[in-house]
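Q: For a teaching handout, I want to show students what a protein-ligand complex looks like in C-alpha cell form. Below are the inputs, and the small molecule is flavin-adenine dinucleotide. Please produce the holo structure.
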Amino acid sequence: MPKPLRIAVVGAGPVGVEAALYAKACGFAVALYDRGPVGEHVRRWGHARMFTPFGLNCTALGLAEVRREKAGRSLPADGDFVTGRQLVDAYLTPLAESEALLEALHLEEAVLQVGRATSVKKSEVAEQMPFRVLVRDAKGAERVDAADVVLDCTGTLNTPHRLGDGGIPAVGELAAKGQIAWGLEDILGERRAHYAGKSVVLVGDGYSAATTICALAELAEGANDTWVFWLSRGPRGAPLPRLPNDPLKERDRLAVRANSLATRCDGNLEFHPQTVLDEVTTHGPDKGFRVAGRSNGVAVSWEVERVIANVGYRADTRLSDGLRPDEPGYFVLGAKSRGPDFLLREGYEQIRKVFAQLTGNARLDLYAKKAA
Ligand SMILES: Cc1cc2nc3c(=O)[nH]c(=O)nc-3n(C[C@H](O)[C@H](O)[C@H](O)COP(=O)(O)OP(=O)(O)OC[C@H]3O[C@@H](n4cnc5c(N)ncnc54)[C@H](O)[C@@H]3O)c2cc1C
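A: Here is the structure, written as C-alpha cells, with flavin-adenine dinucleotide included.
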C-alpha cells in the first residue's frame, strides 16, 4: 500500500483545526501546529460576540466528532450568536483535543519557515521532494519535520496594517507600537478602567472599529470624561458600508449603530473622515500620545491618552518566502488567503476544494454527510 500523504497544517485556528480533521477523515497523516494554544487568535477577541450564528462557524464533520467524543456535551444551537471565547471553549478546543486529532496536535510549537528539500537526481525522472518544516518548540528547541503538503492557516492577526499615509508606519509609530492597542479591546470588561474617562484616538472604519466605537460610546455614558476622536480615511458620511439585505443581521446592526454615532457625533465623540496620519508619537509608557496628520488636506493634531488602531491586517509571507509563489502542494487557507471580511464558512469551502483536489475526487464533500 502506498504511504498516505503527510499533511502539515500550520495554525490551529478554526480553519486549521477543521482542515486537520478533514485531512484525517480522508486518511492522510496529519501534524497540526500552533505557536500558542488552540484558537490563539480568536482568544484575543474572545469577549466579542460573533456576527455569524454558530451554525455557520462549525461544520457537520466537526460537530459529529465533538458529539462522538463526548455524548451529551452541550453545544450551542445553530442559531446562537456565541462569543469568540465560547467558540473556542465549546467547539474548537474539544475538536482539536478529540481522539481524531489529539496525536496530531503540536501546541506551543511555532513553524518558522517552510522550504522544499533539494532533489538529488537519481534518474532522469524529476522526483517531487518533500517540504522541510522548521519548527521551534516552547523550550526553544528547533527541528525539521517533513511534509508532502502544507496548509498555511496562520491567519493575519499578528500583522496589522500600518497607520501612516501610503501604508507605511507614521513617524514615531514603530517606537510607539507596544503602547498602541491593535486589536479589539475588551472596553466594557477587563479594559474598562484603562479607557474610562480617557481621551482616545480610534483609527479605522471596518467592523472592528465599529465594535470599538460602540463600546466606547457606551462607556462614555457612565464615564463622562471619556472623549473619542474617530479617524477614518474614507469619505464624509456613513463610514460603514451596508450591504443591501445583508443576511448577517448582527453585522448590519453593528454598521447602523456605528454609522449613527459617526454622523450624529454624540456619545462624547468626534468623527473625522478623510483623515490620514503622518505622526503617532508616544510621550512614554502611560504618558499619552501626539497624533498628527491631515484632515481633508488641512493639518490636524491631537494630544490623547490612548490610541486604538483597528486598521485591518495584512498577510505575513515570511513563512513561505523560500518557496515559489505558486508552489505545488502549498495552500494558503482561511483569513490569510483573503482580505478583510473573510467568513469562516468560506474557509470551510476552501478546505473542501483542496481535499477534492488532493484526493483526485472532485465530488468529495465530507461536509455533506449528516452529523451523527
Ligand atoms: C474581531 C473579529 C471578529 C470576527 N468575527 C467573525 C464572525 O462572526 N464570523 C466569521 O465567519 N468570521 C469572523 N471573523 C473573521 C475570521 O473568521 C476570523 O479571523 C478567524 O479567526 C479566521 O480563522 P483562521 O483559522 O483562518 O485564522 P486564525 O483564527 O487567525 O488562526 C491562525 C492560527 O495560526 C497560529 N499561527 C500563526 N502563525 C503561526 C506559526 N508561524 N506557527 C504556528 N502557528 C501559527 C495562530 O496562533 C492562530 O491560532 C472575525 C475576525 C475578527 C478579527
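A: Two things your students might notice: The two ends are 30 Å apart (CA to CA). Residues 48 and 83 are 5 Å apart (CA to CA).
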